[in-house]
Design a protein that fits this description.
disordered C terminus, six-stranded parallel sheet, binds 2-acetamido-2-deoxy-beta-D-glucopyranose, disordered N terminus, alpha/beta, 16 helices, single chain
Length: about 425
Amino acid sequence: MPNLAFTMISWVFLLLLPITIAVGKLPQAAPITSERISGSAGDVLEDDPVGRLKVYVYELPSKYNKKLLQKDPRCLTHMFAAEIFMHRFLLSSAVRTLNPEEADWFYTPVYPTCDLTPNGLPLPFKSPRIMRSAIQLISANWPYWNRTEGADHFFLVPHDFGACFHYQEEKAIERGILPLLQRATLVQTFGQRNHVCLNEGSITIPPYAPPQKMQAHLIPPDTPRSIFVYFRGLFYDVNNDPEGGYYARGARASIWENFKNNPLFDISTDHPTTYYEDMQRAIFCLCPLGWAPWSPRLVESVVFGCIPVIIADDIVLPFADAIPWEDIGVFVAEKDVPYLDTILTSIPPHVVLRKQRFLANPSMKKAMLFPQPAQPRDAFHQILNGLARKLPHQKTTYLKPGEKILNWTAGPTGDLKPCSSGATDDHRR
Ligand SMILES: *[C@@H]1O[C@H](CO)[C@@H](O)[C@H](O)[C@H]1NC(C)=O
Ligand SMILES: *[C@@H]1O[C@H](CO)[C@@H](O)[C@H](O)[C@H]1NC(C)=O
């Protein structure tokens, strides 16, 4: 359809012109840095958690955390590294208390996904045992776990399906959330509505993306966005889904099949060295589901000011109670992927500009990142804000004397083995 393609291309040029002008004008017209985000949601991004909650950090033997990291320093750079950085952050945070009697929340520093295959894939087969062992330890040595069976405790479980601890959705669902964690607040990357691996009251966080590396690839902010739609990544996962249809529920395959020859779509499986720069030259960045609903692209899009096109039905986005995702992004139902071109080209330029202005707000970018050292309003602070908003604890948090709710022997028998037993499954994902 040459006519349609021509219309779309001329539309892009029309669109680029106002964006370039607007980007050049904006700093004077609207001092974005001090602009509070309008609407009730965005405001809480600016909250300061200090003074609103106190967190007690349990002291655990290093085999639950530091030793795992020593064994494999790659745990510091993969997309689940928030479990490590949150620990480091809390140790020196102003919300930390050394007196557990005055704590609102208890934190158990375990690195459940720091167990990588030689290829660097974190596979959470040992996670249930290490979690269980850590909980046994804190419940035997301090009175606080038994008082609530974990309802005033939070854990970082950033793996694909959180505390279900399996990389395949079907198996994760079958396992369910680790029984001992069912009353705790889970801080996790996974977010999908009505899913057994997402408890109500969980805090959904962004995956970890290395802030320094992203910073190093910034290009001048007035660079024109000459790419209409950008995506780099897998469309098919032939190793794990040889017949197709399971991976990304077919959405990525559909993107490729419908748009591989469309000149508005800069999409490919190659990962160029200019990946980060390219995102800064693009108007829309596709963020389709993969095996999980999210990917680091979501963080990258926000940081690089590329409007995220979220294709993941029922996704629960990071800090969704604080970040106005509807204003920033474009949501496309998985079944509507074949119409992506029409959907995106029919968004009026003023709406595109408005989304870009939201994205330009530094609060959005800060909330997506776990910088070293921490900064006000970053993802660490958003986690604390989320925990503070859940206070005061409800009456049901505290058990009556002698009351027991959790079953210590529930779950697959393999999970009940001691965590030092070195059996590893060698599954691939
Ligand atoms: C907590 O309860 C467990 C059994 O449910 C018990 O073994 C443990 O000693 C209790 N912890 C404390 C500190 O009393
Ligand atoms: C705890 O779970 C185990 C294994 O599923 C089960 O056999 C046992 O009956 C359960 N205990 C209670 C008190 O429900």
